[in-house]
Each structure stands twice: as C-alpha cells, then as structure tokens.
Amino acid sequence: MRRSVIGMMILLSLSKITGLLRTMVLSRTYGAGAVSDVFFASVMIPGVFLGIVLAGINTCLVPVLTMAERDGEKDAFFNRF
Fold first, then answer.
1. Rounded to whole angstroms, how far apart are CA atoms 69 and 37?
2. Which of 1, 22, 70, 79 is 20 to 30 A from residue 15's alpha carbon, by CA?
3. Residue 73 near residue 64 (C-beta atoms within 8 A)
4. Cβ(36)–Cβ(26) under 8 Å?
5. Domain boundaries, the chain
6. What is the Cβ-side half-sphere exposure of residue 48, based on CA atoms within 13 angstroms?
C-alpha cells in the first residue's frame, strides 16, 4: 500500500507541474486578452460537464460494482450490460 501511495503522490505532482507549464506556455503565447479568455472558456466548459458526469458515475456505479463483487455476482452484473 505504501508503494501505491508514493506512486500516486508522484503522478499527482507530475500532473500539477505539467499543468503549470501548460498555463505558462499559453499565457506567454496568447497573453491576457480576448483570445486567451475564449480558449480557457472553451476548455473549461466541457471540463465542467465531464466532471459532473464522472461524479455521477463514481457516486452510482462504484458502490453497485463493489456490492456485486462482494456478493460474487460480478460476472452477472457485467453480462447485463
């Protein structure tokens, strides 16, 4: 478990660093203005909808899968879909 926690910490740190680099490159390329505002809005709007959908899936599907696996009905669950 300790190895997986350290691995997740490293991956999350790399994600934050690459996100910062992306923002720095975009800011340097487009500056502060209408073009950069449109770009950030076009990236953010689909991201919000995706976040809502993924939160719903995570909230509904994960507990059902966990119960199916615990009860030994995992194969039956997947055969329904």
1. 46
2. 1
3. no
4. yes
5. 1-31, 32-81
6. 6
The residue to which tokens 């490159």 are assigned: 25
Please list the pLDDT of the chain residue by residue as tens digits (81 residues): 788 889 899 999 999 999 999 888 888 888 888 888 888 888 889 989 999 999 988 888 888 878 877 777 766 666 666
| Region label for 42, one of left (φ > 0), alpha (ψ between -120 and 50) or beta (otherwise) | alpha
Report the length, in residues, of the chain: 81
Secondary structure tally for the chain: helices H, strands E: 3, 0
Q: Which two tokens stand for residue 77?
A: 């669950």
30 Cβ contact list (under 8 Å, min separation 6): 36, 39
